[in-house]
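Incident log, structure service

09:12 report received: a user says their structure output differs between two submissions of the same chain.
09:20 pulled the input from the user's history:
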Amino acid sequence: MASKFKTTEISEPRFESDNLRFITVKTKNLKGRGDICLYVPNVELPKDTPLVILMHGVYGSAWIWSQKAGVHRTAQKMIESKTIKPMLIAMPSDGLWGDGSAYLPHNSLDFEKWIAEDVISAVKENIPVVTDNSKIFISGLSMGGYGALRIGAKYPKTFSGISGHSSITDIPQMKLFVEEDLDNYKQENATNESVFSLMKQNEVNLPPLRFDCGVDDELIAYNRKLHQDLKSENIPHTYEEFPGKHEWIYWETHVKDTLNFFNKL
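09:34 re-ran on a clean worker, output below:
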């Protein structure tokens, strides 16, 4: 099968550590290269192993979920204890635009298709157990939660489950975190900017959905509003609140809820 990418680099197994490997591909969507940190469980992997795309927030990159939350170690322990079945976790960069790309198409780059198409293709091309029959799940924190909820809703046939932690729910909230002008993120169709609008538009095909937020998080009011809006439209979802703020210890703890949720699907 011909590669989707002009160039692909993947880490050498002899030098990998902690079940992490790295892929860099050149893609037209980024007009350059994109990085993916990939957790591949150290167990026998069946054909059609599921893939979780796990996205970072502002200021982060492909390394941050593993090196600030140890998600690969959490997943390995859960797999070894048979709490969850084996799954791969792809942790892509957001394209590294400004403080954060918001995983949207803008400034002549398509950060959305980088996630919804390229990341999946890059993993399938390099890891044979991930196939066209593998279930694909999407999750993230903060801006990555926004990306997961929004892209999961926009591409409901691609993803088998959606999860968000401490999620931004609409573009104006990016101003809490980034110095770039919000006009950069504007979409021609405003529906494309709002998580709720996309979920309402695609509610018939929406995959199973969960999201959570810490009660002391600056985004709690927006998450509560999304929950209420979904409830008022009878759109099925699970929403949970836990003690905590907008910080890594919260995400390190609650990424387990995402992995458990995807495992049940």
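09:41 both user submissions now match this output. Likely a transient worker issue. Closing.
09:42 reviewer note: The chain has a mean pLDDT of 97. The two ends are 29 Å apart (CA to CA).
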